[in-house]
């Protein structure tokens, strides 16, 4: 029945043909041979109609994979050769496109001996559609040809195609541009350096096809291009954009900046949206191939983010997290905190893209973009997110009218809050969520607060939710709007699952109290029905305890990991604060040390001027020059040994004007002798004056006090000597 319907009118024939091609895979070989292959031999003859021969070509391509190679060689290949030599170009073109399937069925050897000669002959056919079919089949079968066939047969044909495409046969340009990447990489091993450069230049020429006049070139050539030519040139440049990743592999990623960057720039700034759209789709592939050199294309990323067409933006943000991660980790400038700080226009471009999507009517693009922006905590710093993106998400939740967009913004905001590294900022955001959403005047905002709490339970630990959001959620049981209370009832089982006993026993009591109030005071029938259903579900729930349980092991382990990360963020914040404080202290200490050195240098210079005056003003006129020198040496020795461990706290000694203060430390005094202090006396004074590190002997006051003490000691010594002489004389008189 199918075979009869295949060769009737074209509409019915196409329907039956599609049905037959779909079921051939499931039919047994004997059925195919008797019911399809045998009638096909007669229907493929030259005497049959054009439609009959075209149908025969398509069926032969499908049958090639169902039989063994010897059956194909004996029964199918003769029909294939006959149809390749058909008088009608439509039949030759159709049969040429089926040669790829036949080659896969007969193997490499028969393909080389039977299929390749047919392709060479069809490539020189007078019909352009036949030549195009032969070219595309050659490209698809490159892997089945060895190096000799590629260099001696395929390469000359490809070169002739490229030469004819601009001169006499522009119809092949679109197909040639589409397959050029696959062709260049398939023939890469047999290219000479000259041929390699020629094909690269040919690709560059195709990338700017139709733009010469717009760029100011060839003004005297074609002035007016037909609409058909313009569409053809746009298709060529679009195909070149599609093949750009393959061409980077062709030239080697190391040579990208030298060989292909200018072409990449032109394609990203192409005046036609389909070209830029294709570049946006393939941008991630380009970034992956460039790897460590990905930073070279950051300007084009910013350009596409700011593109006037939302289609281009939609195509780019599909892989935006992966692109930004490659930019952050694979770029040449690898900073420790944020690698993208070297791209100054990136953050403004991201904010501009979001605002453009928000003002458009394409809310799905806006939703998709907000979902992708959740990757930013892994890319840029916490402060940049807080000041440029986080508050924007809160604004979208409160002002946007599209529910999926609001939910996407709420989830992204929770992700930002999850990875925020400053506790003060986290508390501020939590407070805004509770006040502006949970306690907001609009019931719509209160509904979004419940959505946000659901995301918080997903992303944060149980203890975090119980600490900040458990009680604000329960307060909504008294909400005047029934829809809010209804949504809360649906959320209560998840809320209860965050509790742990006995730690959260008081919260559990609050939950039970709210449920009792709902059961007793709820007047709305729909809400009351949901409350009763929720109560039954809550009764069946088991509350997890602080210790691990087998049935909750995985969930508890995941919650413990979240809680550990939250504590880690707090510890990191504390370490950063301590680091900043230490840096501030070290800076202050260095400033103080610098000022102290300057002050000491000034006082030492002043002391050098004042010491001779204080010595000359001494009360002992009989002091010789040597005595003056000794005192000067003594004062200088005190100043130079101020930091010695033994004499580090000697500054308090000279401040006492009485001679008794020195009685325990002076071992002996003579005229013109230098004061000698015992080590023990210094040790006792050092314990009482441990905080004084400066040595005051350099001041004039200290030197004058020392001179006065010396003069008093000398007078006392003189009186003692005279008294001792008088006593000795009396003794002599009494004992003659």
From TrEMBL:
Residues 614-624 have a biased composition (Low complexity). Residues 727-736 have a biased composition (Basic residues). One of its GO terms (molecular function) is protein phosphatase regulator activity. One of its GO terms (cellular component) is cytosol. HEAT repeats lie at residues 76-113, 115-153. InterPro entries: ARM-like (IPR011989), ARM-type_fold (IPR016024), HEAT_type_2 (IPR021133), PPP4R4 (IPR039918). Gene3D superfamilies: Leucine-rich Repeat Variant. SUPFAM superfamilies: ARM repeat. This is Serine/threonine-protein phosphatase 4 regulatory subunit 4 isoform X10. Residues 576-664, 683-736 are annotated as: Disordered. Residues 633-642, 683-721 have a biased composition (Polar residues).
């Amino acid at each position: 029945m199918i075979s009869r319907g295949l060769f009737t009118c074209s509409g019915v024939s196409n329907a039956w043909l599609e049905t037959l091609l779909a079921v051939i895979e499931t039919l047994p070989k004997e059925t195919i041979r008797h019911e399809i292959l045998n009638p096909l031999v007669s229907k493929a003859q030259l005497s049959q109609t054009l439609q009959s021969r075209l149908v025969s070509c398509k069926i032969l391509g499908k049958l090639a994979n169902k039989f063994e190679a010897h059956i194909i060689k004996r029964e199918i290949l003769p029909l294939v050769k006959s149809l390749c030599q058909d008088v009608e170009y439509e039949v030759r073109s159709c049969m040429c496109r089926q040669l790829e399937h036949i080659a896969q069925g007969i193997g490499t050897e028969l393909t080389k001996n039977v299929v390749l000669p047919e392709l060479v002959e069809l490539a020189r056919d007078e019909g352009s559609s036949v030549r195009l079919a032969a070219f595309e089949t050659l490209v698809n079968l490159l892997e089945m040809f060895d190096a000799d066939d590629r260099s001696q047969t395929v390469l000359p044909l490809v070169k002739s195609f490229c030469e004819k495409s601009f001169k006499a046969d522009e119809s092949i340009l679109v197909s040639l541009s589409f397959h050029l990447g696959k062709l260049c990489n398939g023939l890469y091993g047999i290219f000479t350096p000259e041929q390699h450069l020629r094909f690269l230049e040919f690709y560059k020429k195709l990338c700017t096809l139709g733009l010469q006049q717009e760029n100011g070139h060839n003004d005297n050539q074609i002035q007016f291009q037909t609409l058909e030519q313009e569409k053809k040139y746009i298709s060529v440049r679009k195909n070149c954009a599609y093949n750009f990743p393959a061409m980077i592999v062709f030239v080697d990623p190391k040579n990208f900046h030298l060989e292909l960057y200018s072409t990449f720039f032109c394609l990203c700034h192409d005046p036609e949206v389909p070209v830029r759209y294709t570049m946006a789709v393939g941008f991630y592939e380009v970034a992956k191939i460039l790897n460590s050199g990905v930073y070279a294309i950051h300007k084009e990323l910013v350009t596409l983010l700011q593109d006037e067409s939302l289609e281009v933006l939609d195509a780019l943000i599909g892989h935006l997290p992966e692109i930004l991660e490659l930019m952050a980790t694979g770029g040449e400038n690898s900073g420790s905190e944020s690698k993208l700080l070297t791209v100054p226009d990136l953050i403004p471009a991201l904010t501009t893209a979001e605002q453009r999507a928000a003002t458009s009517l394409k809310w799905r693009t806006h939703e998709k973009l907000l979902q992708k922006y959740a990757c930013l905590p892994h890319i840029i710093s916490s402060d940049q997110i807080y000041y440029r993106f986080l508050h924007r998400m809160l604004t979208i939740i409160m002002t946007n009218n599209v529910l999926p967009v609001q939910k996407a913004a709420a989830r992204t905001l929770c992700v930002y809050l999850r990875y925020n590294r400053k506790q003060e900022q986290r508390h501020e955001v939590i407070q805004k969520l509770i006040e502006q959403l949970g306690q907001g005047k609009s019931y719509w905002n209160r509904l979004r607060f419940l959505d946000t709490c659901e995301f918080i339970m997903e992303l944060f630990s149980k203890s975090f939710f119980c600490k900040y959001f458990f009680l604000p959620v329960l307060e909504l049981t008294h909400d005047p709007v029934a829809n809010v209370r209804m949504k809360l009832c649906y959320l209560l089982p998840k809320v209860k699952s965050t509790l742990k006993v006995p730690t959260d026993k008081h919260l559990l009591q609050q939950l039970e109290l709210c449920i009792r109030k709902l059961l007793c005071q709820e007047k709305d029938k729909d809400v009351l029905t949901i409350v009763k259903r929720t109560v039954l579900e809550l009764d069946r729930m088991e509350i997890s305890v602080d210790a691990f349980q087998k049935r909750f092991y995985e969930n508890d382990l995941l919650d413990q990991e979240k809680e550990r990360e939250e504590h880690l963020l707090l510890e990191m914040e504390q370490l950063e604060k301590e680091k900043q404080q230490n840096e501030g202290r070290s800076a202050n200490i260095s400033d103080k040390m610098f000022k102290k050195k300057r002050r000491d240098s000034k006082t030492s210079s002043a002391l050098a001027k004042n010491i001779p005056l204080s010595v000359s003003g001494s009360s002992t006129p009989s002091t010789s020059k040597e005595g003056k020198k000794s005192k000067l040496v003594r004062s200088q020795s005190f100043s130079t040994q101020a930091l010695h461990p033994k004499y580090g706290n000697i500054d308090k000694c000279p401040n006492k004007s009485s001679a008794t203060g020195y009685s325990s430390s002076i071992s002996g005094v003579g005229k013109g002798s230098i004061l000698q202090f015992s080590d023990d006396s210094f040790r006792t004074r050092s314990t009482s004056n441990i905080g004084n590190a400066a040595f005051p002997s350099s001041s004039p006051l200290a030197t004058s006090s020392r001179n006065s003490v010396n003069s008093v000691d000398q007078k006392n010594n003189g009186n003692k000597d005279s008294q001792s002489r008088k006593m000795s004389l009396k003794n002599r008189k009494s004992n003659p």
